[in-house]
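Example 3.2
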Amino acid sequence: MGDSVYGIDLGTTYSGIARINDLGQAEIVLNYDSNPTTPSVVYFEGESNIVVGEEAKRVQRSDPDHACSLIKRHMGTSHPQEFHGERYTPESISGLILKELVATANNESGQEIDKAVITVPAYFGVKEKEATRQAGQIAGLDVVGIVTEPVAAALSLGIRGEKPETVLVYDLGGGTFDTTVLRAEAGRVEVVAVDGNKTLGGADWDTALAQLIVEKFVRAVGLGDEDPLLDEEFEAELLGQVEETKKSLTKREKATVRCRYEDHDEKVEVTRAEFEEATRHLVGQTLEIAQRTVATAEEKVPGLSVDRVLLVGGSAKMPMVETALRDQLGWDPARSDFDLAVAKGAAVYGQAAVDEVLSTDGSEVEVAANAEKKYFLGGSQSLSITNVLSRGLGVRFQREETGEQYISFLVHANDTLPASPEPLTALTLADQQKVVAIALYEQGGELESESVEDNKLLEEKELPIPPMPKGAPVELTLTVTDEGLARVNAYDPAGDRSMDVEAQVSVLSEEEVEQAAEQVSGLSLRS
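Structure, written as C-alpha cells:
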C-alpha cells in the first residue's frame, strides 16, 4: 500500500474522516470526544481563537453572532462573513473545519497525513466542486481527489457483491439531498444518472419540528398571535433541543420538550405522527427527485431495473423515509452506515488514487498479473470510476433576427464524463467584426432553460479576430474532464487562431486562496 490518505465527508451539519487501516479496511477515525462524526460548526471565540465541533455547536446557542453553521450550502458563491473584524469566505470556513478534522485524526492515529479526498453532493456544480478543493488547499491539504457522496457510499458498501448490480443511492444529509443510480461491482462503479437539491436536508426537518413545537406551546399557554421565537433566549433553548427530539422520534412514538417563555413553563408533547405530517411535503420532494433520477437512468439505459435502494446520510434514519419509499414507490430500501459510509468510501477512493490503481474515465488500469488483491476494493486489484455531469453546460448565443440572447447547451446533465461533443459552428453578427465574445454557462435549475437569467455564468472571454464579414464561421469545441472541468475552444478558420475559455470554477482566485491559507494557518484551532 502506498502513502496513507484520509477520506473526508465534509457535511453540511456533521463531518467525518476515515482511512484504510493496516488490515485493508476502511475505518472511521474518532474525534477527541470519541465520536465518529464532528458537527460542522465553527465558533470564532476571539480574533485568533477558533473552536470547531461539538463545543462550537453548544456555544452557538448562546452566542450565535460569533458562530457559523450550514456553510456548505454557500460553497461556490460569494457569501463572505465577518467575525471580530476579519472576513471569511465559505471556502475559508470550510477550510477551518477540514484543518481541525485532520489535526484531530493525526493526533488520534499517531500519523502525519496531509493527503485527502473530500466528498461533495452529486448535484454540486463546477464552482461548488472547485470551491471544495480550494477549501482543502486553504487547510494545507494535498487534495488528491474530489468524489461525489453517492459514489463514495457505493465504494464503501456496494462493490463487494459477486455480481454486478444496479443501485439507487438515496442520500439525505443534514443540508443536501441527492439520488444517484449507479451500476456497481468489485472494482468498478459506473454512474448512470444523478439528481438532487443542494438546499434540502435534515436542517429543514429541524426547522419544521421547531415550528410544530412552538405552535403547540403557543396554543397550550394561550399566547395568541405572540411569537416566542422572537425571544433569543427561547429560540436558543428550543433549537438546542430540536435535534435531540428528532433523534428520539426515530426510535419512539412521542417525545417531550420543555419550553420556557416569560412566566410560562410548559412541557410540550410531540408525536412521531405529528412530526411526519408536518414534514410530509419534504419527504415528497425527495421522492419526486428519486423517481426523476430513475426515469432518467431508464431513458439512458433501456431495460434498466434497480436491484437495490441504499439509504445514506444521517437524516435517512428517520422512519418516515423508509416507510415512504416502501409504501409510495414500492421499494424495499437497505440501510447503511448512514453517517459513516461516505467518509469510508472516500478513504477507499483516496487509497486507490495514491496506490495508482484508480481510473476516473472508465478505462481499465494496467496492473501486473500477480498484483495483490485489495480488500478495500472488494478483492479487486484496481478501481474504475465512470461519472456523469451533474448539470448541463452551454454557450451564449444571439438570435440574428431579434438580438435576443440565449443559451445553447452542448453537453447535458447526466452525460457520461469525460465528454467531447461535436464542434459547433457559430456565425459572426456584423460586417468587419473584430471580436467574438465566448461565454460559458452552467445549468441553473433542475431543467435546462435557454433563458440566460436561468443559468450561471462560469467564464466569459473575448477572442480577437481579423475583420470578418457578417456570417463568417467560428468553430466552438467544448470538452469536459472526468471531474467536470469545462473548456471551450474557439477557432477562427480564416485567421487560423484559437483561444481556450476554461470555466472560472470558483469565486476565489489563486492569490485569494493563498491569502486565505495564510489567514487560517495563523489561527489557533481546538475542538
